[in-house]
Amino acid sequence: MSDKAIEAGEGFTADAFLQESQSDEEEEPSQPSSAGSTPGGPPSGPPSGPPKGPGSDSKDQPKDKKSNFASTAGKVGAAVLGGVVAVGAVPVVLGAIGFTSTGIAASSIAAKMMSSAAIANGGGVAAGSLVATLQSVGAAGLSLSSKILLGATGSSVGAWMWPSDKDKDKNENKDKDKDKDKDKK
């Protein structure tokens, strides 16, 4: 478009578009608002009254915020502990069975494993075998990816082992039932 056409007002401008859209809105007849319902039909707005469905029952809600926080904090703590133990236990366990940083310890489980592997392979331990891998980890430690994998697995196991609120409620109910049974006798 040329400068002359723009100066003459022949070009498209945002002001003209806004004016048109505002005039279109003014021309539309207003519709009565009935809160989204039609006469004789079911209401289409949000339901009134107490909510229904999963999670709306008062039994599903935590008794207080402290118990919910304590449960979450306990689960997180168990997950962290599980990850730390999983990663930290590997060098300790490998050292205990004989895969040390200086090599395989004499008269250890590792030495017996190495002897069996060598006999099975005709005199040598095959590269990539279980004995070779464990000796590598015992000597050099875990790689970063192995630490991440073990940490994630340990965290999952630790969090899984922490009792949930539902488990605690079941145990409390069992204890109450046992107390009632003792009172009846």
Automatic annotation (TrEMBL):
Which keywords does this Swiss-Prot/TrEMBL entry list? Membrane, Transmembrane, Transmembrane helix
| Domain of life of the organism encoding this protein | Eukaryota
Question: Bias category Basic and acidic residues: which stretches?
Answer: 57-67, 164-185
Gene3D superfamilies membership: 6.10.110.10
Q: Which GO terms describe its cellular component?
A: mitochondrial membrane
Where do the record's region annotations for Disordered lie? 1-69, 157-185
Q: Where in the cell is it found?
A: Membrane
- What InterPro entries has UniProt attached to this entry? IFI6/IFI27-like (IPR009311), IFI6/IFI27-like_sf (IPR038213)
Q: Name one GO biological process term.
A: release of cytochrome c from mitochondria
Q: Where is the composition biased (Pro residues)?
A: 40-53
Which membrane topology describes this protein? Multi-pass membrane protein
UniProt lists the family membership as follows: Belongs to the IFI6/IFI27 family.
Name of the protein this chain belongs to: Interferon alpha inducible protein 27 like 1
